[in-house]
Amino acid sequence: MRPSAARLLNILVPVKRAVDYAVKIRVNPQQTGIDTNVKHSMNPFDEIAVEEAVRLRERLKDQIKSIKAVTIGPPKSIDTLRTALAMGADSAIHVEMPESAPAPEPLAVAKALRAIIEKQEGGVDLVILGKQAIDDDLGLTGQMLAGLLNWPQATFASKVDIDVAKKEATVVREIDGGGEEIRCHLPLIITTDLRLNEPRYASLPNIMKAKKKPIEKLSASDLGVDLSPILETLKVSEPPKRVGGGKVESVDELIAKLKDAGITAV
Questions:
Q1: Which residues contact 3 (CB under 8 A, 6 or more apart)?
Q2: Which of 88, 141, 155, 226 is the most buried (most CB within 10 A)?
Q3: Residue 205 has pLDDT above 60, yes or no
Q4: Is 141 exposed, middle or buried (0-12, 13-18, 19+ CB in 10 A)?
Q5: What sequence ranges are listed for the domain Electron transfer flavoprotein alpha/beta-subunit N-terminal (predicted)?
Q6: By the 8 A CB rule, do 28 and 143 touch?
Q7: Side-chain half-sphere of 98: how many Cα atoms within 13 Å?
Q8: pLDDT at 96
Q9: How far apart are CA 154 and CA 131, in angstroms?
Q10: What is the pTM of this model?
């Protein structure tokens, strides 16, 4: 028996275009940020989010109505959306920004996502996104979005189970002492941790199919949000180079060197 339309879930997966994890990061000559003229790809934690959305559909089969990816960024960000579509997302939204515009801050992103969710016909039942982006490492967007929507949140997820009939999710979270299992009602915000899954590689047929999947273009003004940064970066510099260590022949020599350096025993 097919579930009724009212029980079908709509999943939204925000993804971010970031400097590829394998690139060696360098500060630009102006010291205003990092050099971005390098290879970019989808933020790895967001890849995990897309993969989890696709796996949920594989497990729940016809109980998932749609998986929609969304990104906020310059024209090149469409490549990130194409990757999400090739992995299994059905459609996408691109909130396009000028190439020269600074990256939006987490609060602005959360407000834009809230506006997108409120505009979705049929609503959104589940938002899955990476716990952090590897470029700024802030890890704030998911929590801010949950606060703006007044939705429950399950952060740092390492396991996700959905009961569509009950509109309920059971999530295991990564915490310092191990794992914490929580139960939340939908709609829900989930942020993904590394242990949740291993993202699949997009096959060539799926990459070709992704080119035909719809991508909706929006602007910040369409959503009624301001993506201008609130914070000002004064200067970005590389950390000081580490000085090499030295070897000592005995404990007495070590103690003498520590004393010379002004380090005394407690």
A1: 62, 63, 164, 165
A2: 141
A3: yes
A4: buried
A5: 32-227
A6: no
A7: 6
A8: 94
A9: 10
A10: 0.85
